[in-house]
Every structure is written in structure tokens, then in C-alpha cells.
Write a structure and sequence with these properties.
13% strand; elongated; 323 residues; Spore Coat Polysaccharide Biosynthesis Protein SpsA, Chain A; alpha/beta; 8 strands; 8-stranded mixed beta sheet
Amino acid sequence: MEKPELSLVIPVYNEEESLDKLCQWIDRVMEENKISHEVILVDDGSRDRSWSVISQLTCNQPHYKGIRFSRNYGKSAALDTGFRLSSGKVVVTLDADMQDSPDEIPLLLDMLKNGDYDLVSGWKKTRHDPISKTIPSRFFNFITRKISGIRLHDFNCGLKAYRSEVVKNIRVYGEMHRYIPVIAKWQGFDRIGEKSVTHYPRKYGKTKFGLERFINGFLDLISITFVMRFIKKPMHFFGSLGTLSFLVGLAITIYIISHKIYQIRNHIQPIRDITDQPLFYLALVAVIIGVQMFLTGFLAEILTLNSDKTSQYIILERKGFSD
């Protein structure tokens, strides 16, 4: 069977009202532009009739495929699973709430091909979201630009286009879907473009993200920065800090001993025992911490070499996929 030109990966969580209309919109755009495609709908533990809608779509149209999780694992898990099961030359992601426009897909494809990009990210230049979401989002986008060096205005836009080589060689976990461009860059896919896209007001359901996502987003940014730099060589991080701490402790110890020898030789009174000096305990703690961090780096290196990267997502059902 010939591979489709495009794979659409759509995470779904309690979106029964919008799914049918979204899929009709997608089919119309694909037909008008004569793009061979598959649509992978990942039901992330929905509690409404979303899976029933997906099952009906997969029965009626062969280019629709459905995946059902046993519980809500989060958007990153849905995207990661969809990426692994996609077969298209290009993979496009969009949200199921109809705030992302399928009309943008042909333009993203054209930009990806003619612009020689690895991925093209959408930019919701005009957002139809409450101020409680837009202001924190701008702050995190600013911080992410500074830390990653990637000049994107909207890292968290759900509408993105990737070459298949990108999604097959990255791993999205936790809540790292916000930082897929950062993950891609650290894996060597640094040709990243941006396109302004239309953003529509939400018509159905309610947002799945609360204020806690901004705290999680900041923690995830710190995590992804650390992991991407040191995941292959944790000894470079822990070993460097451990060596520095050990050398500081050693230097303090040499100073204390040298100072006492100087006092003895020059008959300077009073001469305190080394163990009576606070600096001695500071030096002891620095040496112990240094050794522990060095050993942590060594053990992390061993774990990295023997890491098991198998998925922990439990899939209850799959529809439309050939065995």
C-alpha cells in the first residue's frame, strides 16, 4: 500500500461535539487540494462519546484511524503515539476543538517543502483566548526563545507541520508537547520556520488547561533544557559539579593544615585543633558532596547506556491500522 503524502495526528479529549465537523472540514480541504492523507485520532481517555464518533469514522472511511488510551495520559502521550504510528511523508498536528483551521494545512505543506524546513510551527498572531491565557503564554514564549535560541512567537501552537524524519526521531513525554521545536533542535533538526495562522474562538466544550499549566510549563522548560543537554552525557553535569565541590573542599583542607603548620613553626598562640574550626566541617561536607555527585554522574552514565525506551501507554483499542 502506497504511503500517504500527509498524516494528520489529532489528540482528542472530550471533543464529541466538534469531531464530525472538524473531520468534514479536513476532508473538504484535502479533496480540494488533492492531498493523499490519513487521519490518526488519538482518544486520550475521553469520558464522553468521542470514541464512538472515532469508531464510526474509521468504519466509514479507510483513511481514518483511531487509537484509544485506557486513561488520560496527556497531550504529549497522544502526540508521541500518533507520531510512531504515522506513515505519511509529512506529519501535521492540530487540536480537535476547531480553533485550528485545516485551511492552513496546504500552506504549511508548501512552506515545509519549498522553504527547506524540518518543521514549520503555527503562530496564533491574533488569539481568541482570555487574557488569563494570553499574557502568561507570551511570557513563556519569551523565556523559551531566550533559552533555546529558537525565534518562534508561539511554541505551544497545536498546528505544526513536520517532516516524517523529525517525528520518528524525537520522543515527546510528560508535558513536553509545548517544547517540540526545542526537542527537535537538540536532535539536530534546526531548520525551523514559522507561519501566522488563523485562530478561531472555541465553539464547543471547554478548555482542558488551567492555571497549573503555566507552573508546569516553567518546570518543563527547565527539565527539557537539562535533559536535552546532558541526557547522553550526564557525567558532564554531575561530574563537573562534583569535581568542583571536591576541589573546593580540598583547597579549604590544605589551607587549614597549612595555617596550623605556620602557627606551630612561628609559635603563634593560641593554636586551635583542626576539628574545632568551622571551616573543617565545611571542607568535609564539600568533599563528601563532590564524591556523591561524581558517583551520581557515573551511575547515570550506566543507566543511560542501558535505558529502556519502551512506551508505557496502555492502548485499549486500535481501529483502521493494518496488522
